[in-house]
Design brief:
- 85% of the residues lie in helices and 0% in strands.
- The chain is mainly α.
- The protein has one domain.
- Helix 1 packs antiparallel against helix 2 and helix 1 runs antiparallel to helix 3.
Length: 66
């Protein structure tokens, strides 16, 4: 159950980052898109750290197969 929770959190974390960094630019609003693009660039390193941590949690809580 915990493993599934971490997988869902990883999906939300990934999609949330893409929404923050890409969607404003795709909507055609240059000012908001530029701010979103800058926010995406600034948040890239914390996002990568989050992906690594969530991936490690997923790996650690993965049920062992005998």
């Amino acid at each position: 159950m915990v493993n599934t929770l971490f997988r869902v959190l990883l999906a939300i974390w990934t999609i949330g980052f893409l929404v923050v960094s890409c969607v404003p630019m795709l909507t055609g609003n240059v000012v908001v898109g530029g701010v979103g693009l800058i926010a995406g660039a600034v948040l890239l390193i914390p996002w990568l750290v989050g992906v690594l941590i969530l991936s490690a949690f997923i790996w650690l809580t993965n049920p062992r197969r005998s």
